[in-house]
Automatic annotation (TrEMBL):
Domain Peptidase S54 rhomboid per the UniProt entry, residue ranges: 127-257
Membrane topology: Multi-pass membrane protein
Chain segments annotated as transmembrane: 80-100, 137-156, 168-186, 192-211, 220-238, 244-260, 267-288
Similarity comment: family membership: Belongs to the peptidase S54 family.
One Pfam family linked to the record: Rhomboid
InterPro entries according to UniProt: Peptidase_S54_rhomboid_dom, Rhomboid-like_sf, Rhomboid_protease_S54
Cleavable signal peptide: none
Enzyme class: hydrolase
Full protein name: Rhomboid family intramembrane serine protease
Gene Ontology biological process: proteolysis
Molecular function GO terms recorded: peptidase activity
UniProtKB keywords: Hydrolase, Membrane, Protease, Transmembrane, Transmembrane helix
Enzyme Commission number: 3.4.21.-
Length: 294
């Protein structure tokens, strides 16, 4: 067949898929117009698109999706995690009422004690590390759980909305662990602690840091925190160690969450949480070594 002068020869047959050079196709991507074979065709509102265009559109959508102050995903229900935590605490409280003190004895925060029945060590020093977290969901007195859950209901949603769900869960659990850790390091033998107070004080510390970051009036939160600290040290029977440990950890974690630079936000945030967890772990290991060698 004659070819016009100066024009390159035209290949015979249909064009070939840009991803699979051995496959001829008559379909083109509606966005970039590159030829695509049936294996690469992805249905779109109009026609078909190639995998590169679809992935590019998804990445652009993720980049423009609204984010919280700390980089979390904005959700329709900013109280979901708070409601779940409330539900867990209330469910465990009902279980304690039904099952009696045995559940508290088995899951409460007990650093080191001697079981009077077997004369053997029990508690975290004996390897029962789970107590550091399970104790944060245990309550016996109605006033105790009522105060903690009321504080959780008021402090939780604003923090959940500002941090995002995953970061809020990390804040809550790390604060609870830090409260248990300080109790373990300081509290004497045969002393039992329970309650969400360590986590709640972590939320107090987080709220103070967030208010400072947003340049809100600090006086209300500082006044409320001062009142709770006075109650902590004046009211007998309160494990002040859990309150202070949770408060410090909550403030430190939130500092990392809300002040992380945008370019390395996730790295800094994860690093902050890991660093606080590492301090908790080292403190507990050192305390365990001290007790076992005593």
């Amino acid at each position: 067949m004659a070819q016009p002068y100066g024009q390159p020869p035209q290949p015979a047959g249909l064009p070939r898929c840009y991803r699979h050079g051995d496959r001829e196709t008559g379909i083109r991507c509606t966005r970039c117009e590159r030829p695509i074979c049936p294996s690469c065709m992805i249905s779109a509102a109009v026609g078909y698109q190639c995998p590169d265009c679809v992935h590019g559109a998804q990445a652009a959508a993720r980049a423009t999706r609204p984010r919280t102050l700390a980089g979390g995903t904005v959700t329709a229900d900013s109280r979901l995690v708070t409601k779940i935590l409330l539900g867990i605490n209330l469910a465990v409280f009902v279980a304690v009422l039904v099952g009696g003190d045995r559940l508290v004895e088995d899951l409460g925060m007990l650093g080191h004690a001697i079981d009077p029945a077997t004369f053997t060590w029990v508690g975290v020093a004996d390897g029962q590390w789970y107590r550091m977290l399970t104790a944060a969901f245990l309550h016996q007195q109605i006033w105790h759980i009522a105060f903690n859950m009321m504080a959780l209901w008021f402090l939780g949603p604003p923090l959940e909305a500002a941090l995002g769900r995953v970061r809020f869960v990390a804040l809550y659990l790390i604060s609870a662990l830090a409260g248990s850790a300080l109790f373990y390091v300081v509290a004497p033998q045969n002393q039992l602690s329970l309650g969400a107070s360590g986590a709640i004080f972590g939320l107090f510390g987080a709220t103070a840091v967030l208010a400072r970051r947003m340049r809100y009036d600090m006086r209300p939160i500082l006044g409320l925190l001062l009142v709770n600290l006075l109650i902590t040290f004046v009211w007998s029977g309160i494990a002040w160690e859990a309150h202070i440990g949770g408060l410090v950890a909550g403030a430190l974690v939130t500092l990392g969450l809300v002040h992380a630079p945008r370019e390395r936000r996730t790295l800094v945030q994860v690093g902050t949480c890991v660093l606080v967890l590492a301090v908790i772990a080292v403190a507990c290991v050192l305390r365990t070594t001290e007790l076992l060698n005593a």
